[in-house]
Amino acid sequence: MQNARVSSVLVTGGRILRAPVTRRTWAELAYVIAGAPLALLGAVYVVVSFLLSAGLAVTALGIPLLAVAIPGARGLGRVRRGLARVLLEETIVAPAPFRPGRDVFARIRAGLRDLAGWRAVAYLVVSLPGSLLGLAMVLAFWAWGVIAFTYPIQHALGINQMTAPGRAGGIRHGLVVGGVVFDTWPRLLVVCAAGAVLVLSAPWVVRTAVLLDRLLVRGLLGPDGTSARITELRRTRAHAVDEAAATLRRIERDLHDGVQARLVALGMNLTMAIETLDGRTSGATRGMLVTARDNAKEAISELRDVVRGIHPPVLDAGLDAAIATLAARSAIPVDLRTEITERPSAAIETIAYFCAAELLTNVAKHSGADRATVEVTARGGRIRLRVADNGRGGAGPTGGTGLRGLADRVATVDGTLDTDSPPAGPTVITVDLPLHA
């Protein structure tokens, strides 16, 4: 038992002696020193932004400025998360990205309702006192500790000297604290010992200050409980959508390479059997073989339609090539413009393809248009499909054109379908999808 206590004391003493020279200590020291000016910058950003917004509240610029400033605080929060990750090895999951609206008013509403932005603003305000306190602790313990610990050397070199009158009328040189002059070796060793205590205590004091900022970073710069749950649900849904797309692709491949090939072989065998019949074969037998061959051909045709409905093989060449094929096969001329710099996931490509196919079919059947335009752009993590025509207009979810089904389909991956189709035309339908489900 006694040996265990001695061993524990030695271990604790070793940790205390090693603390000032460990990587963690220097990393936390760097975090405190770098964090103080960043905290000051963040507080200035918040104060200036809110004062300007309040001062311009009587104009049309106050609210928009605030709507821009709140999401803008995310950038400073991102810097603090990066600093914590590099120096403190504290990995904080970023909150859900800010999604501005499409028009000015939607952007203003999104900015004012940006919960992650408001949490970043709160962090920038609350973290300032703790950051300044941490910096003060660094100066108090580290700076004064090093100065006191090395004071015997400074005294020998005549550095950092103060003067005070001696008892015999002479002048004494040394550190003066409370009227006591530390100029003799016993007193110099007392100062050195006090410096050692400060240096050995500094890592633990600074670690306590850093702990407060760790809690603030975790609580305010990461996702809140609801956002984290939404992010997890999106990740799970994306995995399920990708798995479903892969399963459908595998079914399409099995049908194409297996069942369809067997039906083709069956049709060929039936044709060969019919051709080898002689005149002694009854007409009924020949008729049954012909009917079986025709049924096989119809089954092959229907199976090909099913296969194309599961996963169009043309998508293997990419969405731009697939939509170009749709435009080329359209019953009316189509002007096509595509700008896809990043390929979407397979599920998103399939949804976009079938939306384009359905919309072009609607244009040809219902719009009375003689020309259509298809634009596909992919940027900023989103893909946008825009189909326009110069027809009679009046398209809508209740018009029998399948738009409601398309809207439900894109909604499964957080997509939107907007319809602009006045009675006199033209019709413009925009499908907005994430690049990855």
TrEMBL record:
InterPro entries the record matches: HATPase_C_sf, HATPase_dom, Put_sensor_dom, Sensor_HK_TwoCompSys, Sig_transdc_His_kin_sub3_dim/P
Residues of the Histidine kinase/HSP90-like ATPase domain: 355-436
Location of the Putative sensor domain: 31-221
Pfam families: HATPase_c, HisKA_3, Sensor
TM segment ranges: 29-48, 54-73, 121-144, 185-206
Domain Signal transduction histidine kinase subgroup 3 dimerisation and phosphoacceptor as annotated: residue spans: 249-315
An MF annotation (GO) of this entry: kinase activity
Superkingdom field: Bacteria
EC number per UniProt: 2.7.13.3
Protein name in UniProt: histidine kinase
Species in which this protein is naturally found: Rugosimonospora acidiphila
